[in-house]
Amino acid sequence: MVAGLISLSACESRLDIAPVTNLTDATFYRTEEDAKSALGACYASIYNPDIFHDLVTTDDAIPFLTGDAARPLVWRYDITPETNYLRFFPGAYQSINRSNIVIKRLPDIPMDEQLRNRYIAEAKFLRALAYLTLVRFYGGVPLVTEPTEGAENLELARAAVADVYALIEADLQEAEQVLPPKYTGADVGRATSNAAKALMARMYLFRAGTDANSPFWQQAAQKTKEVIDEGSFGLYDTFADAFALSARGGKENIFEIQYLTDVSGHGLGRGYGVRGAPIYPGGGAGIARPTASLYQLYTEADQRRDVTFITSYTYNGKTTNLSITDPNPANAISFQKLWDKTAQTNGGEGTSVPLIRFSDVLLMYAEAQNEVNHGPDALAYEALNRVRTRAGLNSYAGLDYQAFKEAVWQERRLEFAFENMRWFDLVRTGRLIDAVKAENSFDRNALIKPFHTLLPIPQQDIDNNPLLEQNPGYEQ
C-alpha cells in the first residue's frame, strides 16, 4: 500500500494530461486537417427531412395502412405535438451546431487563409440550409449562432420569422461571395456559389408566397438567372440519366447528398418499393405508395413516369404487374426514382439524393419571371420548355399569366415527385388545403385546417425547452 501511495504521488503531476488517443477541445481544432475534419462532420449531418412527411401530407402518396398506427394519422392530418415523423428539430440543430463550431473555431487555426474562408462559407451554407427547412416547417425558431457547450444557454425562445430569414440571407450572401461556382476532383459535391444562389432563390420564392407584388419575385428571378448564365450546370439528355449512379457529382446536381453503394448508402428505393417484393435486399417495405392523381398526371409520352414509378417486376421468371388502385400493397405501383438496383445490402443504395437540381433552378426562374412581368416572356418559356422537352413533351406557347403559372406548378409536381418538394410548393402557393381535400382515395377524409400550413413544435422539444411556444392550433 505504501509503495502504491508513493507511486501515485510521483504520477500526480501528470494526471491532467489529455490522453493522446482521445480528441477533445484541448487537442483538436489546431491544424488544417482538423479544420477539414470538422467541416466533414457538417457534411455528414446535412439536414434533409424524412421524405415520408412530404409524400403523405400532400396529394402524392398514401401510407401503408397497417403496422405503425402513426403513419395513417399523419396522412389524415390527425396531428398533435406528439405525432411521430414530424420531429425535425434534433437533426436540424445538430447540423446547425456543427456548422457553428466550424464558424467559431476555424478563425483560430493557423492555416491557409483562403481555404479557411472557404470552409467557413461552406459551413454557413449548411447552416442556412438547415434553418431554411426549419423556418418553412415551423415559422420562427430559436436562433443559435454559437456552439452549444455544456448545459448552459439551452433554453431559448423562438425568434421572429424575419430574423431567421435575415440570418439565412446573410449566410448565403457570404457563401455566394466566397465559394467557387464549381469544383473538380475530390471536392465535387461541396457547396458552391451556384448552390448558395439557388438556395437563396428558393427562400425568396417561399417568402413571396401568394403576393403578386412581392419584391422577392425579382430577387428570385435574378439569382436563378445568375446560375443559368454562369453555365456550370445543365440538364442530362434524359430524365433517367439524372438519377443514374453516374450522375453522382454530375452536371445536374447543384447540391446533393452523396452515397456509396453498399458502403454508405440509403434505403429509399427499398423503403418505398413494392411491399414484400423479393427484388430488393430484405424485401420491399412499401412505406407509401403513389396516389392515382399523381400517377395519372403523367402522359404516355412523359419519360419521367417510368423513371419515377415501378409498374411491374420479374423475379425467377415470373412477372408481377402492379396496380395504382389495388389496396394490397404487395400489388401497388410504387416509387423507384432513387432506387439503386445494384445494391446488395438492405440500406446500401448509392444513388445521390438531390437537394437542388438544375431543373429546379429553371422552373424557379420561369415562375419568378412570369410574376415579375405578370406574364411569360421568351426567357420564361425557354426555361420551362427546357424541362418539358427533356421529358419528351411538347413545348408550351401562347399561355397567359395564370395559365403559365399553373403550367409551372404542374411541371414541378411531375419533375420533383419523391424529392421533398411538394409540401413546400403547396404551402407557399396557398394550395395545400384544396390539394389535400381533393385527394380522398382509400377513404382518407383528411382533417386538415388552415393552421396545418405550419407543423406543431414537437412536444418533446417543448418539454426540453419551456421557452418554446406552440404554433396556433396545436395548443393542448
TrEMBL record:
The keyword Signal applies. Residues 251-474 form the RagB/SusD domain. It is found in: Cell outer membrane. The keyword Cell inner membrane does not apply. It comes from the Bacteria. Belongs to the SusD family. This is RagB/SusD family nutrient uptake outer membrane protein.
